Amino acid sequence: MSFSSFGLSADLLKNIDxxxxxxxxxxxxxxxxxxxxxxxxLALAQTGSGKTASFVLPILxxxxxxxxxxxxxxxxxxxxxxxxxxxxxxxxxxxxSLNLPTKLKTMAVFGGVNINIQxxxxxxxxxxxxxxxxxxxxxxxxxxxxxxxxxxVLDEADKMLNxxxxxxxxxxxxxxxxxxxxxxxxxxxxxxxxxxKSILLHEPVKIEIETEKQNLDxxxxxxxxxxxxxxxxxxxxxxxxxxxxxxxxxxxxxxxADNVVEKLNKNGIQAAALHGDKSQAIRTDSLKKFKAGEIxxxxxxxxxxxxxxxxELPVVINYELPRSPTDYVHRIGRTGRAExxxxxxxxxxxxxxxxxxxxxxxxxxxxxIMESSEFNLHGF
Length: 380
Hints:
The chain folds into two domains: 3-209, Rossmann fold, CATH 3.40.50; 212-371, P-loop containing nucleotide triphosphate hydrolases (Rossmann fold, 3-Layer(aba) Sandwich). 40% of the residues lie in helices and 17% in strands. It is built from 15 helices and 14 strands. It has a seven-stranded parallel sheet with strand order 3-4-2-5-6-1-7, sandwiched between helices. Strands 10-11-9-12-13-8-14 form a seven-stranded parallel sheet, with helices on both faces. Helix 2 packs parallel to helix 3 (51-63), helix 3 (51-63) packs across helix 4 and helix 6 (132-140) packs across helix 8. It starts with 9 loop residues before the first helix and ends in a 9-residue tail after the last strand.
C-alpha cells in the first residue's frame, strides 16, 4: 500500500515525500481511511508506531475543504500529557502543512512559559495542541473557545490519566460541542481509558497495533552487572570504547540525572539533563541540540520521555531500572523504531537482578547479562 492510495491531495503527498516517508506504517494503513471517513477511532498503539502522522495527515486533508474559523475558535483540539509531546505533535502538523492551498495555523500550548505570549499567538489558530492545565487557563481568560471544535484527539490518553488529568479533561469535555469526531490513542486500555471510551466515542472503530513486539525484534538488548560505585565510569567506558555518537540515558530521579550529566561533562562527554525540574526553555534547547548532534548524551527521566521522538536513535542505556516492565519496554522502544535497528543496554547491580528477571518474563525476552568486573575502567 502507498500513501497515494488513501486519496490524499497532491500537496500532502509532496510533503510526505519530502519527509522521506516511503510507505505507510501499519497504524497509518488502518487509521487514515477511518479518520478520512469521519468516524470515531479508538487506537491502541505505542509511541514510535507512526501514530502522529496517522491522525495529522487525514485531519489536514479534511480541513482543506473547511471554512475559516472565527477568531480564537479552534477547529481541531489535540490533548497531550506533556510539553515535549505537544511540541512534537505541532512539529509534525507544521511539516505536513507546508505549501497547502488552505493555510492552517497550528500552535502548541503548555505550562512553564509566559501565558501572555501564548494568548497573543492564539489569534486565527485552527489546530491547537495543548496540555489540559494550560488549556483550562486559556479558556478561563477567554483566550480560546472550543464551541467550533470538529475533531478532538486524545494522544496518549493512558498517560494523561496516569498523571492525574482526569478532572481537567472532564472540564474540557464539558465545553466541547456534542457533534464532533473523536480520536483516542492509547498505549493500553485500562478501566480509566474504558471510561473515556464510553463518554467520548460514538460507535468507534477499534484498531490495535502490536508495535512493542515488532520493536523488540529490532532491538539488540544486553545488560552489564556492576556496582553502584562503578556505574558512572562503566557508562563512560561504554560510550567511549563503542564510540556512541548519540545516546539516550534513563535515570529514575532528577537528582541522579543531574549527577550523571555532571560526571559526563567533567570527563569530556557532552551531555544534558532532561527532566521536570528544568525550565521549558532549557528542555527545548537540550532536546534540539541532542537531535542535531550537538550534545552526545541526553539523560532523561520517564516523566518527559514521551516527547523524545528521534527517527533513528541508535542507543538507549538504562542507568537505573524503571519501576515497571511496561516502562522498561517504553524506554528501550525509543530505539529500534520505524524499521531501524537499535541497541538497548542496562546497567545492573546485584540488587536489581530479581526485578530484571520479572521484566524479562513480562517482556517475553531473555537478555544476556555480562559481568563487567574485569573491564579495565582506569582513565574513564
